[in-house]
Each structure stands twice: as structure tokens, then as C-alpha cells.
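Illustration 12: Annexin A13.
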Amino acid sequence: MKTPETAGVALVNIICCCSPSELSVLKKVYVEVLEAKGADDKSRTLVKDVEKETKGNLREYMRLFLNTERKAFPFTQLQSAATTGNWETLINLGDAERSAERIFAAVDTRTKSTDETTILQIIAKANILEIRVMYDHFMDTYNQTIVDFISKHVKKPLRHALNTTIMAAVDMRLLLVAQLYNSLYGLKLDVPTLSRIFILRSDTDLKTLRSIFEQKMGSSLVDMVREETSGDYQDLLLALLTSE
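Figure caption equivalent — predicted structure in C-alpha cell form:
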């Protein structure tokens, strides 16, 4: 938020990838950071600062996303539902499918207008399983992904927030691979995004992200890091990528 020209994208890439429990921690730690930095306004919070630094429908989306209490599912519940196929014990499948249909209906192809408010309210309030059901139902019903549909009919920067939230629920690793590619490919290296993903995933699935990157992007992540970075920073990234 201290870098206005990139604040919107950075906020979306971080916040919209968070689970409910991660958001709760993020809000708490953000206040601790403000205190450590000696912020004069003691009433500042993550939500208030995000509202200040965004505008329009993106502001409304981020406000809803940060303030909505979405249901979280323990791994054991997800595992049981996946084994039995009985997802109805966790969510109302019919409601989620109707939400997908409401998103499709929010676009009037005759007038080429989009009810962005309806779409953002649905996505901001949906939990991870509801989004997955919406994604599948949209594809089955309309023969296109909900991400492609939103990309065609919703303007930036709201489009980026919606699609980031959806992909975080549907395929987090593919989303992170796309963020890695965008951070490396462009006029300017996106060091904060590149560093965040490398450090946060170095102990879990960075090697898997490397493989997916090569499969989906047709380029070697190692080679791109060598081409786009230099010095000690390059050495660190390569060490994280290639360590056993």
C-alpha cells in the first residue's frame, strides 16, 4: 500500500489467496506491524487501509471479502466427503449451482452491460467448496470457465480480484505459477511477488511449482530466474529451486 502504482495488484495477490484462518491472522499481524512502525493513527486496521487505498467496485469487493465470515473445512471433513462423494454434508450444492447461474445472468449480452455488484457479492461471500461447485457447474452448463467469462465481461481491477479468488479455490498451484510467470515476464521484475512465493513455498511445494511452471508455460523456471535476476538475489532463488 506504500507503492500506489502496484498497490491494487499486490493487495489482491496476497489477500485473495488467503483462507479464512489466514485472513484472521493477517488482520491481527497487520495491526502489530502498524504498532511496530509507530503509526500515529491507532485506529488503523487492514480493512480500513485497504478501503483507503482502493476505489470503486474493487474497494467494495475487498471490503466484503475481508469482512465476510466464510466457512472453513478441516482436512478430515474434506477427505471424508471426497471419499464418499457426499459433499451435501458440507455445502448446499443447489445453492452453489444457482449462484453460478446468477453470475451468468448478471451479463446482458444484448446491451453488453454487466451487473458487477451481483458478481462481486456472490464471489466475496462464497467459501472454497462453493466456488469449486460454481466453477464445475459453470463449465458443464455454459461450456466455458467462469474465469474466462469474467475476463470477458468484468473490467480491471475487479476482474483480477475475482479471478484470483476463484483460482485460489480451484487450483492454488496453477494460480501461483501464473503469478510467478507474470513477476518474471514483463518490462520490470516484480521482486516482492517473486520473493513472497519463493519464500512461502520453499518448505512445501516449490519444486512442484517448478514442474507445473515448465508444463504450463513451456519455459524453464530456472532459466527464467537466471535471465531476469542477478547477483546474490539470483543465487538465493536458484538455491531454493534446486536444493534437494
